[in-house]
Amino acid sequence: MRVLISGASVAGPALAYWLTRYGFDVTVVERAPALRKAGGHAVDLFRPAMDIAERMGVLDRIHAMKTGTQRLTVYTEGHDRPVEVELRKVMAGVSDRHAEIMRDDLSEIFHDATRDDAEYVFDDSITAISGDGEVTFERGPARRFDLVVGADGLHSNVRRLVFGPESGFSAWIGAYLAVASVPNFLGLDARVEGLTGVGRMTAMYGAAHLPDARALFMFRPARPLDYHYRDVPRQKELLREHFAGFGWHAPRLLAELDATPAFYFDSVTQLRLDSWSRGRVTLVGDAGYCPGPAVGGSTSLAVVGAYVLAGELAAAGGDPVRAFPAYEAELGAYVRRSRAFAVSAAGKLVPGSGAALWALRGAMGLVGRLPAGLTRAVSKLGARGVRLHDEIVLKDYAAHEVRTATRP
Ligand SMILES: Cc1cc2nc3c(=O)[nH]c(=O)nc-3n(C[C@H](O)[C@H](O)[C@H](O)COP(=O)(O)OP(=O)(O)OC[C@H]3O[C@@H](n4cnc5c(N)ncnc54)[C@H](O)[C@@H]3O)c2cc1C
After folding, report:
1. What is the pLDDT of residues 344-371, one digit of tens each?
2. Which of 244, 311, 330, 406 could cross-link 397 (Cys pair, CB 3.0–4.6 Å)?
3. Residue 177 CA: which ligand 1 atom is closest?
4. Mutate to test the pocket of ligand 1, among 43, 125, 192, 388 (most ligand atoms within 8 A of CB)
């Protein structure tokens, strides 16, 4: 049975891995000319995604490429002294098993685990998917597939072709996000440093194996902004407007925007499709159910989604009529909880008022003073939804495997 996957970042290669392990014939088409290597940002793998990575035989490589972030140094506007937070304590409250890794490193690890078993076609994109399975491409010849999966991110091409324009399914959750590669002028290694104020925050982080650092900007304007997604000069201008007069190293980071080799700007948007499958086409990862970039743990959701989709297809003998509803049912609660968590996290990361900023500073200070075990216990009792990832129970599809773990 032939499956075409659009997108070779996280969800695409993870899905390719599990499908080939169940005996499917897999092709992955990626619009970029090669795997992305520059820019990118850190992502989180929580317990279920770590468990899946272990079953894939790639856990050692993930550990070897971790960012190693240990500490957050957070200044809040109006206070000279920062709050120091040990990341280990925060993460102990969220998950028992966690790794932070650059998205491009994770993508490379998943790609390496699949490249001998799946066909990868770079520098191409799907232009049409017909009801009988014929797929046409921008560059390559038309081909026939039994199933097509969109793993092509928040602004998915497959979703647009099959479900219609994005505006029908997306909701702005009140914030904008930008990431730029900048020189590591603070010498940050294993540490995030930043400033939070009312309606805006900026931070910078590095990792031992990164030659440069990443600057992160998040802000909440009163209403949606007017810009084109390809108009990078306008996006940089918007950042400069919204961060004018902001303290800490914000002026230096804004000055670096002119020379940055990699720049990302987007609204923090949540997808709200009730169903993400139609006929022989389905969606996985951000393409189908992005709870919001940087606020909803969407990388773990993408890895779990890929594992469940492949497992349900294997269990149904490749029949989408049975497999797709089972995939959506299995993942539905996780998706809904991630959406709710993301809306609340977006509000907390960028406080909307002086009182909310004060509460954030207090909460961070508290985490800084509590021992790790107590932080874990408090999060289990209190903040609802914080441990949403660890509460996921993975179904076992091992009976359908036709081959076992990957070579290291
Ligand atoms: C700034 C930022 C910060 C983030 N921080 C975090 C975090 O801290 N923790 C966390 O867990 N997650 C975070 N995320 C989210 C995380 O990056 C995504 O959830 C994860 O990458 C989803 O993987 P994916 O494979 O579904 O989609 P993506 O990683 O978006 O990959 C989509 C792939 O599809 C390809 N593609 C696009 N269009 C086409 C086309 N027409 N044809 C073929 N291929 C196409 C793209 O080139 C890309 O390779 C962050 C995201 C952003 C943007």
Report:
1. 888 777 888 888 888 888 777 766 665 5
2. 311
3. 1
4. 43
* Number of domains the chain contains: 1
Measuring CA to CA, which residue among 256, 173, 166, 170 is closest to residue 221? 173
* Cα 154 to averaged position of ligand 1 atoms, centre (Å): 7
Whether residue 198 lies inside any domain: the answer is no
Helix (H) or strand (E) holding 341: helix 320-349
Structural domain span for residue 164: 2-169+270-400
Are 360 and 348 spatial neighbours (Cβ–Cβ below 8 Å)?
A: yes
Question: For residue 156, which amino acid is it?
Answer: S
Do the beta carbons of residue 204 and residue 194 sit within 8 Å? yes
Show the tokens assigned to 119: 């066909």
The answer to the question of residue 294 being in a domain is yes
Q: What is the pLDDT of residues 12-25, one digit of tens each?
A: 999 999 999 999 99
Would you say the pTM of this structure is higher than 0.90? yes
What pLDDT digit, counting tens, does each position of 113-137 carry?
999 999 999 999 999 999 999 999 9
Of 27, 31, 32, 33, nearest to 15 (Cα)?
27
